[in-house]
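thread: overnight batch results

M.L. [08:02]
morning all. the overnight job finished for the chain we discussed friday. pasting input first so we're all looking at the same thing
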Amino acid sequence: DTMALDYQDSNTNGTWDAGEKIYYDESKITMGSDMETAYIASFSQNLGPSLSIGANVKLLSQNVFEYSAEGFGVDVGLMYRMNPGNPLMEDGATGSGLSIGVVARDITTTQLNWSTDTNSDFYRESGQWASVSAPGASSIPLNLAAGAAFTLKGMPGISSLTFAGDVAMPYGNLDISFGAEMWIAEMLAIRGGIKQIGGPTS
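M.L. [08:03]
and the structure it wrote out:
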């Protein structure tokens, strides 16, 4: 319950800043639950020997305290596989090659419609808590991502070696990830990676 919070406004700017103490009135704090559920139907189709398309249709449900929301969303992705056979691998090594993919998540800007007419956002005014009403809906913005993976197969003692990387832009941020995976004798997998979560793109 946001109304149960108060804080030490050291610089008297009317908002809480990092480092300022927060005071709790335990008599006003209530407990509740948050449950989120997604029902997803997926579809994929080969458009040729190297190109394929896929899509998700999503029904989202969320329950917070006594309020509930539902929404509908769509994801669409494309993948292109280049597998000419690697001359460095023994016997042509089928399965080696480069794969490139792009995906657009929530292309409909998925909107969650709440069971209440308004959502209350709280702010501090003249040392007291007040509220302002906003429309009873929230949205999940479009998220674009692209990635590539290069796989080598047929090396002595190693079933496959894959290097991968992707770039995503969730909520206007820029996230970059790199990783590698090695399978030994098709029994043991060794994986590692790094993810850089960036700031706003604008």
